[in-house]
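Researcher: We're teaching a course module on how sequence relates to structure. For the next exercise, students receive a sequence and then see the predicted structure as tokens, so they can try to spot secondary structure elements on their own. Here is the exercise chain.
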Amino acid sequence: MVDDKTTESLNKVLRQTKPEKISDYLEKNSSYMVNVDKPFYDYMVRILKKKNLKQQEVFIDADISDRYGYKLIHEEKHTRQRDTIIRLCLAGRFTLLETQRALKIYGMPALYSKIPRDAVIIIAFNSEIYEISSVNSLLIENKFEPLRPCSQE
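Model: And here is the predicted structure for the students to work with:
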């Protein structure tokens, strides 16, 4: 698999792309685009594959049932709990940037450094602390609610 181009680099190319070259741009960069029918699925699968992780391992580490996890990733179910998506990203060993993008694609607000609880979670990602129990310990030590357990809404 070819390395992922950043959104910034694609935006730079788009600024220089003329209308008559749209089809060339789309063809040349199709491997960097998300599937518009299932963008979250496409993104998650691509990142997990890049990290050589199986979905089942991620669900176990995120403490999410296989059945519910597959339905979330395959976009058959939708959660309103941002913590559930954060759990998947932590278990998937996502970087902060990958997590922010996953949240955005899913339709959730990104982690925001001016929100104290989010700041703790950002520090966990930046410090490569991916175990849910360790992140929850950091949150509790700093007087914040731990990541919510996954509820199968």
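Model: If you want an answer key for the exercise: The chain has one domain: 21-141. Residues 21-141 form one domain.
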